[in-house]
Amino acid sequence: MNIPNNEKVISFFREISKIPRETCKEKQISDYLLNFANERKLEVSQDELYNIIIKKKSNIKNFNGPAVILQGHMDMVYVKAADSNHLYENGIEIIEKDGYLYGNKTTLGADNGIAVAYCLAILDSSDIKHPDLEVIITVQEEGGLVGAQILNTEAIKGKYLINLDAEEEGVVFTSCAGGIRNYVNIPTFKENVDSKTLMSINISGLKGGHSGMEIDLERGNAIKLMARLLYNLNNDDLYLCSINSIGKANAIPNNAYVTIAISNGMVENITDRINEIENVFKKELFNSDEVNIKIDQIYVESGKINVYSKDTKNKIINILMLMPNGVINKSMSIPGLVQTSINVGSLEENEDNISILSSIRSSVGSQKYNVADNIKIIAETYSVGCKFFSDYPEWEYKTESRLRNLFSDIYMEVFQKKSTFTAIHAGLECGYLDEKLNDVDIISIGPNVYEVHTINEHVSIESIKNVWVVLVELLERLSEQN
């Protein structure tokens, strides 16, 4: 088995990591891909949202078999550490350590930059035998699979689709959950009160993580923990000045901030209560996460201060307490698979409202909408706004798959061990592509990527090589079908 050097994959990954490509800001990376294809005289198209489709004819003489689609997304979740001075505009700084690639106090973007790198390495190579290739690289996957939703697939003729957005080597996804996202918008009203002591409270130290991949690990959700803290501290003499935990729908929030105003004589009591509640959280999360509650500032504000009205304060706290979060139920068909879940991912304070963003996932459509109905009831009960968007379909398992069989055979031949075929609770673009394309055989594969959507995200260099070996051999065997 003659396998081209995988260094080209890592080289392309390093190159595209220099280009900022946060979700909804993909024009620069999309233009790079467009230029890449044009420089190599490959057929390429770029749509109005910056999705890219690149086609390359087979290098097998007189090939007349079906085309193979390679697919991934170009956007990434950008998160940086609280103490990082990194500028998004500078791209990602990659650090190599102990056989892994990391970002420098930022997300790495292996999700899903590594897919782009695989595609570029194959398109750039002349010594890899392959069938006709159709490479689809989408945008706004992390924003709710938006690119895949609007993608025009009329020109796509492939009958095999290899999605490269999986995150565990040798574990092949054959179906995935669908999902829907939601905003609850709470109108806010403020008032002035007499001089108070202000306390800024920060919940931090949590691991966070991908809301599809790590939702079942019982990690703390900073927004829900802050809701519990405020609920337990709340009384008529406590005022809410500000609250924020700006994050992503599909990332478990790992920090939250709040500023409260209290009477001058309440400082010691409130501080003691915060310490007690912190100990409760630590005990609850002892086996799954770490949490710290820090009082950043205690100072007395002179004169009138602006705070949320008591009705607004209570509405914010109560809605946050009632919002469902975490695993709703697990599959009875596939052991260990989360069937339905919800992640409260972001809480953003705006001029006249507070916006709560959540992501619902389920492999059963009716259960997805049942969770949505629960949120509607909360919104209706408290007379606040509620909006659902990015409703994407699940990808259903197919009983027959030549791709599955080929991958299984190759993986056993190369590594002398079995691959695993399973479903994933996270949403993949395969759902939309399966819906849009006629009778296509799909698998989702990828190298070992850890702690995605967090500042600890890293990818195994050895695993990048292993998946490259299998991918190249898979394309070669598919090129033999005429």
SS class: alpha+beta
Q: How much helix is in the residues?
A: 25-40%
> What is the arithmetic mean of pLDDT?
95
Strand proportion, as a percent range, falls in 25-35%
CATH topology of the largest domain: Alpha-Beta Plaits
Distinct helical segment count: 11
Quantity of strands, as a count: 24
Low-confidence stretches: none
Give me the Rg, rounded: 24 Å
Name of the level-1 CATH class of the largest domain: Alpha Beta
Second rung of CATH, namely the architecture of the largest domain: 2-Layer Sandwich
Which outline best applies? elongated
Q: Distance between termini? A: 21 Å
How would you write the strand order of the largest sheet? Answer: 1-2-6-3-7-22
Q: Could you say how many structural domains there are in total?
A: 2
Summarize the biggest pleated sheet: 6 strands, mixed
Task: Kindly describe this structure.
Keywords: Dipeptidase, Hydrolase, Protease. GO terms for molecular function: dipeptidase activity. Pfam families: M20_dimer, Peptidase_M20. Its EC number is 3.4.13.-. It comes from Sedimentibacter acidaminivorans. It is elongated, with a radius of gyration of 24 Å. The chain has two domains: 210 residues, Aminopeptidase (3-Layer(aba) Sandwich), CATH 3.40.630.10; 212 residues, Alpha-Beta Plaits (2-Layer Sandwich), CATH 3.30.70.360. Strand 1 and strand 2 form a beta hairpin. By secondary structure, the chain is an alpha+beta fold. The two termini are 21 Å apart. It is 30% helix and 30% strand. It is built from eleven helices and 24 strands. The protein has a six-stranded mixed beta sheet with strand order 1-2-6-3-7-22, covered by helices on one side. Strands 8, 17, 18, 19, 20 and 21 form a six-stranded mixed beta sheet that branches. A four-stranded antiparallel beta sheet has the order 4-5-24-23. The model has no long low-confidence stretch (mean pLDDT 95).
